[in-house]
Amino acid sequence: MKRITIQPRENWQGKVEASGLLYHHNPDGVYWNESAYYLFNSEQIDVLDDAANDLHQLAMKAVQHVIDNSRFAELGIPEEAVPLIKASWARKDLTLYGRFDFAYDGINPPKMLEYNADTPTSLLEASVIQWYWLQEVFGEKSDQFNSIHEKLLELWPKISEQWEEGGTLYLTCVADNLEDLVTTTYLMDTAIDAGIKAELIFISDIGLGLEPFARFTTLEEITIENIFKLYPWEWLLADKYGQYIGKTFDRMTWIEPIWKLILSSKGILPVLWGLDPGHPNLLEAYFDGPKGMKEFVRKPLLSREGANVTIYHEGKERLHTSGAYGEEGYIYQALAPLANMDGNYPVLGCWVIGGHSAGMGIRESQEMVTNNLSPFVPHRFE
Amino acid sequence: MTRKRRGKIRKSREIVLGVAMLSLVAAATGCDDSARQRRCVDSNGKVVAEEQCREEEARRYYYGGGPHVFFWYFGGFGGSSPGSVAGGGSYAPPRGWSPGGRFSAPSGTGSPGGGLFGGSVSRGGFGGSASAHGGGGIGG
């Protein structure tokens, strides 16, 4: 695993924009960074691929464990979600995607930092943009850990078997965030390409009708039965219409399914550790304090974008990120030093599509916490 | 964990961008009519580069504030080149305007009765938590 600097393509901004990456810059500067790339060997890719597959299987066992042992409160999951989670798990609602974030140095086993199981983004970059980059810069014979697009196309027909033939899939996100809109639009295109009728609706445009029965509707007041939402489950439940999710639940297919709430809570980290302590891809983690760990991270149970994270070295606070999370409590996870690649700290986002490892996107930052502004750097392997 | 030496993990087919993404790109990069109806102006109504509005939006979104000196101006007359003066339009987006040229209803409004079942439908009951967490999207 090496970080190699390289000349960016001429007019790279125009090229990535034309492929949908409209947010190649952010307030911190360049977001899509093709002035460097990561090079792996085939064995390293196998290691990452295996880790993602193994951990997803372990995560499935953890969901069953949380349900069997009613550990919802520990994970910060609201009570009203519990019967819905149980119903969703029992009827085997399918998952579309998720992303493991790994610390990896190419030598030691990758360590799972967290599982973005409910609303992962940076999908287009990983699936499309870095693939076009690879093709143009290194030619058709070059290789990349990336079968995300194909796996999405293969998966959509299986997911659509959950609803009535010919039913429309609605995809929703907030209206004022370009990254979310691009991710949702990309997924919509893959669904359409797979033969599904799909439309976009912004989340604030979703209507609620109560007569003759509770239902969520489109702007044309068509009842929504199948929906992909790039919007966290805990937010949906907390919103004004959250109380109607239960009333409409039996008539709807939600993607991601609500059982993903279990995996999107950071509480899953100590649950996983408890189920398989010493697993080579897991970090020691606990609910009730660092338990003697000197180098550890405190993370809110429900948080995103690296917010409200505190890093402790030798038991003392060394770094704290701001944010609006933490009300539900925290977990304590051993600190996994990120590989230092010329002053850059990469986090490897390994995608899981339909429960199967599907590819990788790398974000790097100059600090130990990756956030939503951390640049994306492409990769290849040989 | 079983180690296995597998063949290359690579794409088996080319990626072809879909229509929705292409139209989003066209709208965002000013290549279709719905995007051209919007111009970026300064506090004197003088047209400036759209980049100014986008950068200010990004700054205010990510850092939660700062001075508001550039504004989107919807419709009206005047040129679209920097330096032109815009008039006859509005600083408020027309009903149904949304980023990317898509159309949506203003948040929190009800829509007229009718539809499939009749009766009234309310809107705006989803999305509030995004504002409570600083607005915008979820990243992750």
Explain how this protein is built.
Chain A is an alpha+beta fold. Chain A is 29% helix and 25% strand. Chain A has a five-stranded antiparallel β-sheet. In chain A, strands 13-17-14-15-16 form a five-stranded antiparallel β-sheet, with helices on one face. In chain A, β18 (345-353) and β19 form a beta hairpin. In chain A, α2 (42-68) packs across α10 and α5 packs across α6. The radius of gyration of chain A is 20 Å and the shape is globular. The termini of chain A are close together. Chain B has 140 residues and is an alpha+beta fold. Chain B contains four helices and four strands. Chain B has helices at 19-28, 33-36, 50-63, 128-132, and strands spanning 38-41, 47-48, 71-74, 121-123. In chain B, strands 2-1-3 form a three-stranded antiparallel β-sheet. At the A-B interface, α2, α4, α6, β8 and β9 of A face α1, α3, β4 and α4 of B. β9 of chain A pairs antiparallel with β4 (121-123) of chain B.
Which properties best describe this structure?
heterodimer; A: 382 residues; alpha+beta; five-stranded antiparallel sheet; 10 helices; 21 strands; B: 140 residues; three-stranded antiparallel sheet; 4 helices; extended
Mean pLDDT of chain B: 67
**What percent of residues of chain B adopt helix (DSSP H or I)?**
10-25%
Task: Tell me the overall shape of chain A.
Answer: globular
Strand line-up in the sheet with most strands of chain B: 2-1-3
Please provide the count of β strands of chain A: 21
Please count the helical segments of chain B: 4
As a percent range, the share of strand residues of chain B is 5-15%
Fraction of helical residues of chain A: 25-40%
CA radius of gyration of chain A is 20 Å
Oligomer: heterodimer
* Separation of the first and last Cα atoms of chain B: 28 Å
What is the percentage of strand-forming residues of chain A?
A: 25-35%
Average pLDDT number of chain A:
93
Let me know the largest β-sheet of chain A: 5 strands, antiparallel
For the largest beta sheet of chain A, what order do the strands appear in spatially?
6-5-18-19-20
Q: Would you identify the regions of chain B where 5 or more consecutive residues have pLDDT less than 50?
A: 1-8, 100-118
